Amino acid sequence: MFTTVLSEIRQNRNRPLFVLVADYIDGDTLDDVFSWRKELREVGQGESFDVLVHSPGGQLTACFMIARLLCRFTGRWEALVPQIAGSGATMICLGSSNIVMSEISQLGPLDPQVASKKREKFFATERQSPLEAFEALRYLREFAVASLDALMEVLTDRGIAPQKALETSVEIATNLVKPVLEKIDPYDLGAFSLDNKLAINYCKEVARPPDPNRKTQRKAFYKSLVEDYPVHEFAIDFGEAQAINLAVSQPPVDLEVVFDKFRVIASKIKSYVGLVPAPPDGGSQ
Predict the structure, then answer these.
(1) In sequence order, what DSSP letters do the residues of 66-133 get, joined into one string?
(2) C or N terminus of the chain, fewer CB within 10 Å?
(3) What DSSP element (H or E) covers 266?
């Protein structure tokens, strides 16, 4: 049933179709894609081919390498996203000339999921996001300033001299946030910052390669994918994708019908990587 739906998508688009379905993109996924290099080079000699991407994301470097490989095989390819291409899978789509996505489809921010380097971790769970650490610091800063302002107002209203009121307010506001700040390791924050910079550089390399003949998402605001969204789970739908200047289009009605079929069965498929065979009647290669 799954391969039948993939064949329908290929026939509808009338061009070669490479499929990348993974519940988590890692080094093994990269190896699977690389194993198709001969076939991808052959189809890449044509005008264009499609890559169907269905994944919530995965390892940053593995996703980057997959994106670079796809762009080496052809100067132009289009991404098909029937449902989800989140996080690192979104970065892969930056290598496309266009992303075909439904109203229900979603991309996602590139929020690197990293591990704390210290034994006693700041986060209780294994999943650790730089956004969470930076948001915690932002909240503490805003809380400290708000507390300082409120204390100054109370103390000056009670007739305390401004200098003394300021000293007292600073001391109280500092003591309020100090217990939390002491649990944040600057080393972790530095590591998180480096991971964010790595994500931005990877996005730039994929979206804006040195070769001007490669048709990629050159106009996309790729930094927004790393810096501008509040949480890792933020859904970048069709409208939001347009807002960050991604080249996107919606599928025609007949292709949307096939996408509907794909979404019904996609949750049952953990991994599928490879080219969809050409139709037996000798259709498009």
Answers:
(1) HHHHHHHH-SBEEEEESSEE-THHHHHHTTSSEEEE-TT-EE---------SSSS-SSSSS---HHHH
(2) N
(3) helix 253-266
Helix (H, G, I), strand (E, B) or coil at 140: helix
Render pLDDT for 104-133 as a digit per residue (tens, 0 to 9).
Answer: 999 999 876 555 555 455 444 444 556 566
3-state secondary structure of 272: strand
* Integer Cα distance of 165 and 170 in angstroms: 9
Residue 239 CA to residue 248 CA, distance in Å, equals 9
In three-state secondary structure terms, 269 is coil
Rounded Cα–Cα distance for residues 20 and 40 (Å): 13
Q: Which two tokens stand for residue 159?
A: 């007739």
Place of tokens 């503490």: 140
**Cα–Cα distance, 252 to 23 (Å, whole number):** 27
pTM above the 0.85 mark?
Answer: no
Structure-block tokens of residue 235? 């859904």
Between CA 196 and CA 177 the distance in angstroms is: 26
